[in-house]
Design brief:
CATH class: Alpha Beta
Order of helices and strands: EEHEHEHEHEEEEEEEH
Distance between the termini: 34 Å
Mean pLDDT: 88
CATH superfamily: Class I glutamine amidotransferase (GATase) domain
Shape: globular
Structural class: alpha/beta
CATH topology: Rossmann fold
Largest sheet: 10 strands, mixed
Number of helices: 5
Radius of gyration: 18 Å
Low-confidence stretches: 1-40, 42-47
Number of domains: 1
Number of strands: 12
CATH architecture: 3-Layer(aba) Sandwich
Length: 332
């Protein structure tokens, strides 16, 4: 099965390099975060309904929307081309869009039901970046092995998907200026590793309600990943509820909970996030770039089977990949 391509096009955008500067921030407290402005950046403010006091830990790193947090150390020269590593290891429940578990090594044979990986490979083929994929944690054993990739995507990974060596390698890769893309159950991964929680923007999956259609609002209109998206578009997903919820990030899209016919309350009792329920955002983190989205649950998202709004999701994801990989301006 193949994803629809008619609405996706390749944009050639100049690579932007930003000088790295050692920077110290006065961090906002948990009581002052969560509401965001209409350009998407989180600002001090009050809750607009929904769960409150979800926490804002200090991860001890430079993070946020200030590009001075980025380490432009020349680790990813544009002349070398752009390559994405897609990591799909699951150490718990496995989403249907991942399909049959893959064999060991890099780029093992794919099955018909590995639809999400196939879709990302096709995005790369049509938009100027190479894609490798693996569920083999040994392929993340060293930072050196990751530095050949412009970005690393965690695509619905689950629970403790990394061993100690891979954790160290990922952290060093990000600190060298690497790009991270987290999709859907990347938020249900490495729960007990605070650094990774920070990489997700101070966010973790808590629960979700029924898979149901709702309206997505495009709020960060300046970013390459939101260019060409409607102001509002219908999409179907599980609509993750988060604890903690993102802070000091640039929110790009959010779901309008008022359009959820079955409500936002999750299966573990989370009431939802009220007027500010983000579903994608970006930040600089510990020297690298992080672009993440909770969307992507429904198998139809990744195939030719009709699903309203899937072309907008894929366009959004493509822009996130390209910006995290340094192919386009990041987190505008």
């Amino acid at each position: 099965m193949r994803i629809r391509r008619s609405t996706l096009c390749t944009a050639v955008i100049s690579v932007v390099s930003t000088a790295a500067v050692v920077l110290t921030f006065a961090l906002p407290t948990a009581a002052t975060v969560r509401a965001h402005d209409r350009d998407g950046a989180t600002v001090r403010g009050h809750e607009q309904g929904g769960a409150q006091n979800l926490g804002d830990p200090d991860y001890g790193v430079c993070r946020g929307t200030d590009p001075r947090c980025y380490h432009d150390w020349g680790s990813f020269p544009p002349a070398a081309g752009h390559r994405l590593l897609v990591y799909t290891r699951t150490a718990g429940p496995r989403h249907a869009h991942l399909g049959t578990p893959l064999g060991p090594g890099l780029n093992p044979p794919l099955n018909d039901d590995n639809v999400a990986v196939k879709a990302v490979i096709e995005l790369g083929r049509e938009n100027g970046f190479a894609v490798d994929y693996t569920e083999d944690v040994t392929r993340l054993a060293s930072a050196q092995s990751l530095l050949k990739y412009s970005a690393v995507m965690f695509l619905s990974t689950t629970r403790d998907a990394l061993d100690d060596g891979a954790q160290t390698a990922l952290r060093q890769y990000v600190r060298a200026g690497g790009g991270f893309v987290g999709v859907h159950n990347a938020f249900g991964t490495e729960y007990n590793w605070p650094w990774y929680e920070g990489l997700l923007g101070n966010a973790n999956f808590y629960d979700h309600g029924p898979n149901q259609p709702a309206e997505v609002r495009t709020v960060g209109r300046k970013d390459v990943s939101t260019q060409g998206l409607p102001g509002r578009w219908t999409f179907t997903d599980e609509w993750y509820n988060l604890v903690p919820a993102p802070t000091r990030v640039r929110v790009l899209t959010e779901v309008d909970e008022n359009t959820m016919a079955q409500g936002a309350r999750g299966n573990l009792g989370h009431p939802g996030h009220g007027g500010n329920h983000p579903v994608s955002w970006c930040q600089y983190y510990d020297g690298g770039r992080s672009w993440v989205t909770t969307l992507g649950h429904d198998v139809r998202t990744w195939t030719d089977e009709p699903l309203e709004g899937d072309e907008f999701f894929l366009r959004h994801l493509l822009g996130g990949i390209k910006s995290a990989a340094g192919m386009s301006p990041f987190c505008r």
